[in-house]
TrEMBL record:
InterPro entries from the UniProt entry: Mur-like_cat_sf (IPR036565), Mur_ligase_C (IPR004101), Mur_ligase_C_dom_sf (IPR036615), Mur_ligase_cen (IPR013221), Mur_ligase_N (IPR000713), MurCDEF_pg_biosynth (IPR050061)
MF terms in GO: acid-amino acid ligase activity; ATP binding
Domain Mur ligase N-terminal catalytic stretches: 3-98
GO biological process, one term: regulation of cell shape
Domain Mur ligase C-terminal residue range list: 307-436
Native source species: Haloflavibacter putidus
Keyword Glycoprotein: no
Record keyword Cell wall biogenesis/degradation present: yes
Pfam families: Mur_ligase, Mur_ligase_C, Mur_ligase_M
Protein name in UniProt: Peptidoglycan synthetase
Domain of life: Bacteria
Keywords assigned: ATP-binding, Cell cycle, Cell division, Cell shape, Cell wall biogenesis/degradation, Ligase, Nucleotide-binding, Peptidoglycan synthesis
Sequence ranges assigned to domain Mur ligase central in this UniProt record: 108-280
Length: 450
């Protein structure tokens, strides 16, 4: 099968391209710019375009499929050529569905926690040498790629994103998968550039349950009242299973999970991660892994990349980076770190990087999300605000929205880097939350600065 990727450098797109080549497909692609780690991965696979840009001559009648990434625009010249030729054009979630039409599709949805839950499930399956296909939104220890497709595996585990599928397909990605087994972890307003009201955003999860196939199974977090409301109203799933945060204790900075066999130390921490673990356990049981096998495997799970990832632990200073950026994620992550390190000075840093977080109206959603920290540092780039064509944001607006007694705001990446480089962080836990990189911060350098 011959496939061409328009915007091959995307996070999910480049992983799908590599997975299809490993499956034996002929793969080509284009993009106007490609960043790391996509660039190196594509280069190692022999799939990096010879030059950046869009080349309609790459689109020929003998292509079996054109896969369109969200980074491309509706007037993309390669897309227009594919439309002129009448070629089959897929978004990547639509193509993943076609690749899994004869499999049991396990879809993990929710405003937060979906990457971690997907990672937990895959870790358990990998531990017990149970082969499954998958698509996950973060790099996992023990896995070469973030997408894996075969002709033989019975299950495919899909992280179910609620963002749009492609520039010409305005459906949320998780609507396209038609789940056999699904999970919803939480519902908290996000993506305000697409879903302008909370009601519209919540509606997408209601539609998600309605896209599930007849006879399907829905696993849901009953501690989230909105999830519970959506799940209980859903009519498509034949069976529903609620989960909740299990009992646990923290002793000397180590979290112990209560199990039928007694207390078990685990690598991850935070109430939100314990809640995620409970959901993952239910899904694994539906995939043929019993409770005892799950606990055996999950004991050494360290988390997905950038999810409370410890990047330094030196001379009494502990530093984490985390992908948290939406208000619900920021609050859960901040509270988790506070609870795990109650006696340390706690500094929480947050980069406002997404369209939603840089919108003044939505910024109010961050009120009280960082209250667990002793000190708060917020970074944002005025250039990013301008690129997103938003109204200019002032530090005072951030202070008024977040309302923390000890708050600093940085807009210059050099000054923020100097703060980290020269700060006094003795007996301190430092949390760096962002879906970006603070204007070019090299996280690997931070340990050397302590």
């Amino acid at each position: 099968m011959r496939t061409h990727f328009i915007a091959i450098g995307g996070s999910a797109m480049h992983n799908l391209a590599i997975a299809l080549q490993e499956k034996g497909y002929t793969v080509t692609g284009s993009d106007d710019t490609i960043f790391e780690p996509s660039k190196s991965r594509l280069e190692n696979a022999g799939l990096l375009p010879e030059e950046y840009g869009w080349f309609p001559q790459k689109i020929t009648a003998n292509l079996d499929a054109v896969i369109l990434g969200m980074h491309a625009k509706p007037d993309n010249p390669e897309l227009q050529k594919a439309q002129e030729l009448g070629l089959k054009i897929y978004s990547y979630p639509e193509f993943l569905y076609e690749q899994s039409i004869d499999k049991t599709r396990v879809v993990i949805g929710g405003s937060h926690g979906k990457t971690s839950i997907t990672a937990m499930i895959l870790h358990v399956m990998h531990y017990h040498e149970k082969e499954v296909d998958y698509m996950v939104g973060a790099q996992l220890e023990g896995f070469d790629t973030m997408v894996h497709l075969t002709s033989d595996n019975d299950f495919i585990v899909l992280e179910g994103d609620e963002y749009l599928s492609s520039p010409i397909d305005r459906r949320p990605k998780f609507h396209l998968y038609q789940a056999n087994i699904a999970l919803i972890s939480g519902i908290a307003w996000d993506h305000v550039n697409v879903f302008e009201t909370f009601e519209d955003y919540k509606k997408q999860f209601e539609i998600f349950t309605d896209t599930m196939i007849n006879g399907s199974i829905l696993v849901y977090n009953e501690e989230d009242p909105l999830v519970k409301e959506v799940a209980e109203a859903a009519t498509k799933p034949t069976r529903k299973h609620a989960y909740y945060t299990p009992n646990y204790t923290i002793k000397n900075g180590v979290t112990f999970l209560e199990t039928p066999e007694g207390e078990m130390p685990i690598e991850v921490f935070g109430e939100h991660n314990l809640n995620n673990l409970a959901g993952a356990k239910w899904i694994c049981q539906h995939m043929g892994v019993d409770e005892a096998e799950f606990y055996e495997a999950i004991a050494d799970f360290k988390g997905a990349s950038k999810r409370l990832e410890k990047i330094a632990d030196k001379k009494g200073t502990v530093i984490f980076k985390d992908y948290a950026h939406s208000p619900s994620k920021v609050k859960a992550t901040t509270e988790a770190v506070r609870k795990q390190y109650p006696k340390k000075r706690f500094i929480a840093c947050l980069e406002l990087h997404t369209y939603s977080s840089l919108t003044p109206v939505f910024l109010q959603q961050y009120n009280n999300t960082l209250a667990a920290a002793d000190e708060v540092v917020v970074f944002y780039s005025p250039e990013a605000v301008e690129i997103k064509q938003l109204d200019a944001l002032k530090p005072k607006q951030i202070s008024e929205a977040i309302q923390h007694d000890r708050l600093k705001v940085y807009t210059n990446p050099v000054m923020f880097k100097e703060y980290l480089k020269n700060g006094a962080f003795a007996n301190t836990v430092l949390l760096l939350m962002s879906s970006g990189n603070y204007g070019g911060l090299n996280f690997k350098e931070i340990e050397d600065w302590i």
